[in-house]
Amino acid sequence: MSIVIRDVREHELDSVLALNNNAGLAILPLDSVKLQRFYQQAAYFRVAERDGNLAGFLVAFGSEADHDSSNFAWFRERYPQFFYIDRIVVASRRRGGGVGRAFYADVQSYAELRYPQLACEVFLDHGADPALLFHGSFGFREVGQNTMPNVNVRTSMLMKELCSYPWVRDTYGGQLPDQPWARARTLADATPSATPRANDP
Fold this sequence. Notes:
By secondary structure, the protein is an alpha+beta fold. It contains six helices and seven strands, in the order βααββαβαβαββα.
């Protein structure tokens, strides 16, 4: 069956929280307060559906966001403008089935209309090779390493140039066409009554 990527709905946050906290050591745990803050503030907060079931989620922030991640702060100290993937989680039964690749294609389509670079990190202390290979296959490169305070986790800091951004900036100058696939996320889009968005081109 096809994978559908769409904005999260508020009533799904409990399921998202369970997905996150069952993901293992490669993802930091969340509580409901922080997840609600993600829901209110993230520029990109989408879930994947496969066979009608929640298969994963991805949360990302623009570089201008009020976001308290130490890894986000590391990027902001060094780069003026970027789109930051805070976390991606794929349900264990769906791993290896293309959900992660569908998310990265979707988040890049969103980001390259607005930012010159896409940023994320990979935890290095818990068998990082599959994640590093996955990101390398999408064109990410390591631009440094960071040790996260309080949790003492070492991360590989990854960045990808978004080659379409200069053309979009020069052509549209921040006034993107009013097309469903190009619109920014709003909480109105994320309510249960909103029409789900599939993988628009």
